[in-house]
Amino acid sequence: MITLHRINKIYPTRHGPRQVLKDVSLTIGRGEKVGIVGANGAGKSTLIRLVGGVERPTSGYIERGMTVSWPLAFTGGFQGSLTGLDNLRFICRVYGADVERAVPVVEDFAELGAYLREPVKNYSTGMRARLAFALSMAIEFDCYLIDETLSVGDERFKKKAAIELFEKRADRAMLMVSHMPHHIRKLCNTFCVLDEGRIERFDRADDAYQRYTATH
Amino acid sequence: MATECSLRCSLAIQLRVVGALVLREVLTRFGRNNIGFLWLFVEPMIFTLVFAAVWYWMRDKGMHGLDLPILPFAITGYSSVLLWRNAANRCAKAIQPNLALLYHRNVTVLDLFIARLILEIAGATASLVVLLGVTVMLGQAAPPADLLTMAGGWFLLVWFAISLGLVIGPLAERSDSFDRIWHMIQYPLFPISGALFLVDWLPTKVQQIVLWVPMTNGVEMLRAGYYGSLIDAHYDAGYLATVNLVLLWVGLLLVEGNKRGVATE
User: Fold this and answer.
1) How many Å lie between the alpha carbon of A102 and the closest alpha carbon of chain B?
2) Do A162 and A150 form a contact (C-beta atoms < 8 A)?
3) Regions in chain A scoring below 50 on pLDDT
4) Which residue range forms the structural domain that includes residue B131?
């Protein structure tokens, strides 16, 4: 279980402090799929980053009773001068995962062929995205954080990625944020609306959808 | 992979992450071709040779009558500068290019600094040991008189480099102007940091001022260890240790502050 206790996040800006999240409390149970919709700038990505531990809340705290992935934004932060394989090795070392086991997974999934052993700076955008997604599949987590829905590569790869994430890992928890409610409706079983930093939770997608459209 | 964990498993994670970062830095900086790391020695070697040449030329012209084995002098001096200068400069640029790595919760700003510090310390130490070792083996210099004092001096300098890096790194990250100012002050710091002179050569009044510069005390101690009774060394190890402790404390506070402030793209 992951529990957020009264999270506030304030960013300093040129016009003074800006509160992005206000008193957000949330629990994500094992295997639960929580979808959060909100307009651009509602604080969705900030929430994902806080749950992922990329940033810290200004106040409040987060309990992580299961392993949590990094935010899968599918763009990836690679060292361009290193090869795809080097980047994979780095990720495995950081998470204490077995490199030998991860290599075939990434080879198979990213479909980069010999390019896996080329510097990432020689990759096309699609290749980068495929590598990034493959890396996040090489390490197993209890809970995956997904910032916006899959928007990687061509239709075929999107389908493949969806199978990998939503079918093969159907038993995992997920926290997914999107500004497109129909994605969330399909994939989640708990729904939240984030509006101006406040969160509201709904058990039915329709209720969440109504609440979301009422303000937009 | 543990989620919330004890001090021991946190330490294990930190070691793992720092190890991964060091390997990654080695690859990006030196590449796969194995001569890459030789650059570590080229810079101090050139400095040592130029310094020795100037020294002998000045003595021939009668500008000084000092009879000091000069190669070890140049090597100890420049390795020390290399140590604190590179540690600070590499820390100053540690965060920006590695921002994406902070997406991984286990990777912290402190880890980025530690990884770079380890590499710089290893590099400067290697250049000191190898260059001095080769010089001694070639019969161009005597072996160190007192290895323990040398090691003590080097240890204090390493500690200083770590503390300085942890102060400069977060500050340079917060403000570009600080980064520029630091670059400006490190040039005058080089000649007064004890690399180019023995404190004993200076007038007493100047000595007192120069010994306020922390690294001068470390270089002087390093040389006291190497030359033994050949020189009159002036240094205060306690003063350097105190400065180190204060800098380290300030540095860790700054790093902790950065942790909250760093916004990833």
Assistant:
1) 15
2) yes
3) none
4) 7-261
Strands A143-147, A68-72: parallel, antiparallel or unpaired by DSSP? parallel
Q: pTM for this structure?
A: 0.86
Q: Say how far apart CA B10 and CA A133 lie, in whole Å.
A: 27
**What length is written for chain A?**
216
Taking the C-alpha atoms of residue A103 and residue B257, their distance in angstroms, rounded to an integer, is: 37
Pairing of strands A173-178, A33-37: parallel
Question: What is the rounded distance in angstroms from the CA atom of residue A105 to the CA atom of residue A137?
Answer: 8
d(CA A45, CA A41): 8
Contact at CB, B13 and A77, closer than 8 angstroms: no
Sheet architecture: strand order including A16-28:
A16-28, A2-13, A59-64
Given an 8 Å threshold on Cβ–Cβ distance, is A77 in contact with B105? Answer: no
pLDDT for the residue B265: 44
Q: How far is B16 from chain A (nearest CA, A)?
A: 6
Distance CA B66, CA A148 (A): 72
User: In this structure, is residue B24 part of a structural domain?
Assistant: yes
Could you tell me where the beta strands, DSSP code E, fall in chain B? none
3-state secondary structure of A77: coil
Q: Which residues of A touch B25 (CB under 8 A)?
A: none
Residue B2 lies in a domain: no
The residue to which tokens 């890992």 are assigned: A169
**Which residues does B255 contact at the CB level (< 8 Å), separation at least 6?**
B109, B110, B113, B166, B169, B170
Q: Report CB contact under 8 Å: A65, B100.
A: no
Token couple for B108: 């912290």
Tokens of B138: 């070639």
pLDDT at B1 over 50: no
Report the alpha-carbon distance of residue B4 to residue B130 in Å, rounded: 44
Rounded to an integer, the average pLDDT of B138-155 is 94
Mean pLDDT of B221-228: 95
Pairing state between β A68-72 and A2-13: unpaired
- Classify A74 as helix, strand or coil: coil
Whole-Å CA distances, B231 to A78, B74, B224: 52, 15, 7
Q: What pLDDT, on the 0 to 100 scale, is given for residue B34?
A: 65
Question: Which of B20, B28, B100 is nearest residue A94 as measured by Cβ atoms?
Answer: B20
| Domain count along chain B | 1
Which residues of chain B have a CB within 8 Å of the CB of A56?
259-260
CB-CB under 8 Å, A53 with B105: yes
Residues on chain A touching B17 (C-beta within 8 angstroms): 93-94
Residue B1 lies in a domain: no
- Determine, yes or no, domain membership for B61: yes
Instruction: List pLDDT tens digits, range B38-73.
Output: 776 777 778 888 888 888 888 888 777 777 888 899
A86, A90, A135, A145, best to mutate vs chain B, most B CBs in 10 Å = A90
The distance from CA B68 to its chain's CA centroid, rounded to whole angstroms, is 25
